[in-house]
């Protein structure tokens, strides 16, 4: 069952003379874990930001073709509506913290959805426990190391109601050890929730041992490969 479908989709930023994404045809199935790879500047973040509505879709388009996420077309919806379909962890985490403490930050989505205090406390505990950050729930997110910040973002995204979780360069700013931990956590989230996971990463050598169903490679705004990691990287 397809949960995301790009059909002949192109996207151009207003201030650019050429489209950044060209004729994208891509179908992602419910529950898949997909890696979007490619060189810096190839359009990976733009593709992700078409999914979560961060790109500036304008009235007269900016895009051609169609993009469906379940039953919606994101360019027809507000970013708030889209966030119920696609949860995102961006690489610049500092801008993403909304709580004064780690606990408040992870609770944010639930509080916005009118969940009871007891239930929130319990859910935040479960999420923080999974990322091994329960003992820092009263710290300010700003005091944390890069790896801890990433873990808190991952705990927060677990509370998202969205069926699709998008991670844009989750390894940026992390040392190799923290990076491995973050990838393991994303795997755990995938396993526990069965959600559709999309990871954007150019440090492909750091993530290839992961259990991706599919790897999509983008170059200069076009999909140049879309296959299982076994087929793509098999050594002969
Ligand atoms: P990356 O995703 O490779 O870490 P960024 O997303 O920050 O890097 O930017 C990718 C490219 O897009 C860079 O070459 C940058 O100069 C360009 N870029 C980012 N934002 C804008 C913008 N508002 N206008 C024009 N170019 C931009
Ligand atoms: P990647 O994530 O693969 O590094 P991006 O999607 O960030 O690539 O950027 C692809 C191209 O899109 C960049 O070269 C840049 O020219 C352009 N771009 C990115 N963000 C913006 C923006 N906000 N406004 C205008 N152009 C942008």
UniProtKB/TrEMBL annotation:
Q: Where in the cell is it found?
A: Cell membrane
Protein purpose: Probably part of an ABC transporter complex. Responsible for energy coupling to the transport system.
Domain of life, source organism: Bacteria
Q: What is this protein called?
A: Energy-coupling factor transport system ATP-binding protein
Which residues does the UniProt record annotate as the domain ABC transporter? Answer: 4-236
Task: Return the similarity comment.
Answer: Belongs to the ABC transporter superfamily.
